[in-house]
Amino acid sequence: MLGGLFFIFFRLLELVTLIPTLGMLAYFVNIYVNANALTPNYILVLFIVSVLAAAWALVTLFRRKSTRDSAAFVAFIDICFVGAFIGAVYTLRGIANANCVDTSGGLSSSGGVTSSGNTVTVSPLDINYTPFSINASKTCSMLKASWAFGIMNCIFFFITACLAMLMHRHERKEVVVEKTEYRRRSHESRRGHGSRSGSHRRSSRDSRRQNYYV
Description:
The chain is an alpha+beta fold. Helix content is 74%, strand content 16%. The two termini are 69 Å apart.
């Protein structure tokens, strides 16, 4: 029961991180399609993997009964998505060290005391302030966010694969217990039926003997 709740929780986390990834990567795909150009592999691979992963997460989240019955297959597919996301993140690895934010402004000063050999020069200290500004590259920021979400989904799908395997083991134990209980009950019912039929035969013989002696 607890494993099923954790499975639902991490499936929701996967959807929460996959939906923004799909939106950002679809933005880039649309740009290249409108420009009648080929979409780069580092965008296209992660986009395709994210589409398939989001569809799989939705199906396994809303079809809980079939997910629980085929938990081993669900775990296998989740492990496959872990490998797919690792490959997609690797193709986009170039964005890891990119600086997407450029800052400018602040305080600057000039003048003061300077010395050259035996000469000391004192000039008025001038402090200038320029407004602080942050310039962020939209393209770089979106690609870096998609790359980070891809790494997160590697972890999330690995966790859901482990939880699915735990669900599979729990389901097998329940099946074994149910079969054992069924066999025990059927054996007891056979023994009870045999004892009742034996007592019925003995009572019928006793009644025939009593009729004979009379």
